[in-house]
Amino acid sequence: MRTIAIPQLYCGASGKKGAYNRQEVGLARAFAALGCRAVVLYPDPDAAPEAVTSEDLEPNVRIYYVPARKAGVSAFYRTWQPLLNEHVDAVHVMGDNALGVPGLYRFCRDHDIFFYSQLGAIKSTSENPVTRAVMDLLCRRNLAIYRKTPTYAKTPAVAAQLEQLHVPCAGVMPVGLDTAIIPNANGEKHELREFLKLDPKANYLVFVGRLDSYKRPLDLVPVLEALPRSWNAVVIGQGEPDRGTAGCPAHPQAGKPLYLHSPAAQRNRAGLLPCLRCVCEL
What whole-number distance in Å separates Cα of residue 143 and Cα of residue 139? Predict the structure, then answer.
């Protein structure tokens, strides 16, 4: 049985324990369903240098919390020993422009561990021009690694960007979610729409995520404009609305309802998600 490790090289706000968008755990469960063992590594900047802990989510899915140093949102693991202890065959890296990618690549190369990547972004999204320029410059080290190892894109847009940067793209591999923590909604579709106060005859697009400009929640607006009048949108998340959702809940360009559930809906996001998934037939 092959063992695949999925280390997180990010120390930001996304993907925290208990979140539905914990990509690494969703991917690990998928690997286990295919007959592999999956080992997820999360950085723990608050842990003592030797305090590696672990938990088993299911028979072939194990999570390690590994001491790490933090620089901005980049994680630098103090040890990669769990990769050796678990006799890992391959490392699935969602490193994007993370500063820790070169160190992990060297470790895998030195220990004969297969290294491949799944990327969701290349360029820095920082609003600070100096930070953005420095990160884009440092990202050249990552690009050199991506050019000589198998590299997948999370979206067609990233695939096109990789080609522009002369990084061969092995294919598009969409983002996964940890759907195991999202409960099923009980009730018929019309009952759930009534519970959510949604038009029983309308069609809905749903955005669930942080309300930040780089997440581009208002990309829903031109999509709505191109769709028949029966289509509406629901936006759920928390953040700074003026940065990512100016004009909500009724954006002047939309010409249609654009419902904004924040921050109250964010506190009940786990309860809303299964209903919306059923209502919108996701």
Answer: 6
CA–CA separation, 158 and 96 (whole Å): 10
Q: Report d(CA 60, CA 29) in Å as an integer.
A: 8
pLDDT tens-digit readout, 153-176:
999 999 999 999 999 999 999 887
According to DSSP, the β-strands at 61-71 and 74-77 are: antiparallel
- Angstrom CA distances, 3 to 9, 95, 107, stand at 19, 19, 17
> Which H helix or E strand runs over 6?
strand 3-7
CA dist., res. 186 & res. 192, Å (int): 8
Considering only CA atoms, give the Rg of the chain: 20
User: Token match 């028979």: residue?
Assistant: 59
Give bridge partners of residue 41 from the DSSP assignment: 7, 64
Give residue for tokens 């942080």: 210
pLDDT of residue 52: 95
- The runs of H, that is alpha helices, within the chain are 23-33, 81-85, 101-110, 129-147, 156-164, 189-195, 220-226, 241-244, 264-267, 269-279
Q: What is the mean pLDDT of residues 50-70?
A: 94
**Nearest Cα to 9, choosing from 58, 66, 51?**
66
Please give the model's pTM, rounded to 2 decimal places.
0.76
